[in-house]
Each structure stands twice: as structure tokens, then as C-alpha cells.
Design a protein that fits this description.
The chain is an alpha/beta fold. The chain has 11 helices and 6 strands. Strand 5, helix 7 and strand 6 form a beta-alpha-beta unit.
Length: 259
């Protein structure tokens, strides 16, 4: 029998943990059960119980403090997620003991995990092999999307995740309650946007012909991928020959356990 999963994504501070907490309350009101898996190795606290926590496997602080690695926050996070991808058996064991059929995966906010690295795609593929029906939920803070250029930037971030993961995806603007009355009126046009009209609204600020051409191409790209409709045509994924990572994660982890 299949189970169901949401991959909760979005930039840091976009409201992913708040979304998960709200979903738990919603499910409780429907007398349904839902569980949350934390996949952020740099997380500090939660407003809800988690059924599995990646920090039980590896933490960013441990990686940053390791003298042989000397990673900063971003490099440490990448290392942790790649280590996680090489230890999916930990996640399988954690999920195997739970009878609930709906799981929320609270993910890190760094965009490079969805654009530059295969980790999140590997997670999706693994969940599907475990007979999960997976969808993506991409959150963007509405306070940073009340201008056309910022809106396009947010849409492109959501689009990059959608193209990378190749799963059904819902894009959500969060923190609408924090907007001013004026901003709430402004943001209404972004709920069902016409990309070309938005570009025309900013024609006075687009003084460079090259910039105008680039902006037009971006608008065409967004429309081609049907970011706002239900008629998105799924494209066949390209086969990629990925070589195994040579990073010796097991030695690192064992050295930390022994110490």
C-alpha cells in the first residue's frame, strides 16, 4: 500500500517549519495523523514533535568543528546532505517503524541543494522506490515578492526545484498576514499573473535592450513551464551517469563517534 510524502522546500526563513506545524494542526482537526521528518542538519528547535531527525545521523556543527574538514556553514551543510544520501538506510529504518501514511519532509533552505547537487533528487527517487507518492511544496516569503523583479526571482527559484525534482509541485506565498494593506493590494496581481504585462509595467526601469531581451526570455520560460496552471506537460528525465562520490563519509563519521 503506498504512502504519501510532501517535500517541503523554500529559502531560509520562508516559513517551512511554520507550514509543517500548521499542517499538523490541520490534520488533527480532520482526525488524521501526519508525521514530520527533519532533514535540516542545522536546525535548532521545532514547535512540533518529529518522528525522525537527521541530526541523529549527522550535524552541521560537528562537521564545522572537524579539523580535517574545516567547512563553513554552507560547505558543512552540503557535506551533511551528501553523507545523508549515502546513508538512506537510516531513513528507511526510521520510516519503517511508523504506520502513518502521510509524511512531511522539512528540508534545508539552501537553493544549491536543488540546482547544483543531486541529493534531493536522489531522496525523491529513493522515496518512490519505497512506494511513496511524492509531491513538492515550495514556499516563498510574500514580503519579498511585492515587486515584479523580486516575484520573477522567486518564481525562478521555484522553477529550478520543480525541474530538478520532476514531481508535482505546489508553490505557496507565505506570511501574507505580515503584509501592509498597500502591499496586500499590490500582491493580488501576482496570484494569477500575466508575465508579459508585468514586464510592461517595468518598461521604464528596463533601459538596457539586453536586459529587456533577457527579461522577456525569462517570462517566456515561466509561461512555457505553466507555473500557474494544471496543464504542465511532464518531460522525460534525461539519463545521467553519476559517478560515486569519493568523499570518505564513513571515516569521518566513525572518527566522530570514537572521539
Amino acid at each position: 500500500m503506498p504512502r504519501y510524502a510532501q517535500i517541503v522546500m523554500g529559502p531560509a526563513g520562508s516559513g517551512k517549519s511554520t507550514y509543517c506545524a500548521t499542517m499538523i494542526e490541520h490534520f488533527e482537526s480532520l482526525n488524521r495523523s501526519v508525521q514530520v521528518v527533519n532533514l535540516d542538519p542545522a536546525a535548532e528547535h521545532f514547535e512540533y514533535p518529529v518522528m525522525a531527525d537527521i541530526r541523529e545521523l549527522i550535524q552541521v556543527d560537528d562537521v564545522m568543528e572537524d579539523d580535517s574538514l574545516r567547512f563553513g556553514p554552507n560547505g558543512g551543510l552540503v557535506f551533511c546532505m551528501e553523507y545523508f544520501a549515502n546513508n538512506f538506510d537510516w531513513l528507511e529504518e526510521s520510516l519503517g517503524h511508523v504506520e502513518d501514511d502521510y509524511i512531511l519532509f522539512d528540508c534545508p533552505g539552501q537553493i544549491e541543494l536543488y540546482t547544483h547537487l543531486p541529493v534531493m533528487r536522489q531522496l525523491v527517487d529513493q522515496l518512490q522506490q519505497w512506494e511513496f507518492r511524492v509531491c513538492g511544496v515550495f514556499l516563498v516569503d510574500s514580503q519579498f515578492m511585492v515587486e515584479s523583479f523580486k516575484f520573477v526571482s522567486g518564481v525562478m527559484a521555484a522553477l529550478s526545484a520543480m525541474v530538478s525534482l520532476e514531481i508535482p509541485q505546489i508553490n505557496i506565498m507565505t506570511k501574507m498576514d505580515l503584509l501592509s494593506a498597500k502591499a496586500k493590494k499590490e500582491i493580488e496581481k501576482y496570484l494569477d499573473p500575466d508575465m508579459y504585462s508585468m514586464m510592461g509595467d517595468n518598461s521604464d526601469t528596463l533601459r538596457s535592450k539586453k536586459f529587456k531581451k533577457l527579461t522577456k526570455a525569462i517570462c517566456e520560460l515561466i509561461d512555457d513551464y505553466s507555473m500557474y496552471g494544471e496543464d504542465l506537460e511532464v518531460k522525460e528525465p534525461k539519463e545521467v551517469d553519476e559517478e560515486a562520490d569519493n568523499t570518505n563519509y564513513d571515516e569521518f563519521f566513525q572518527s566522530n563517534v570514537d572521539s
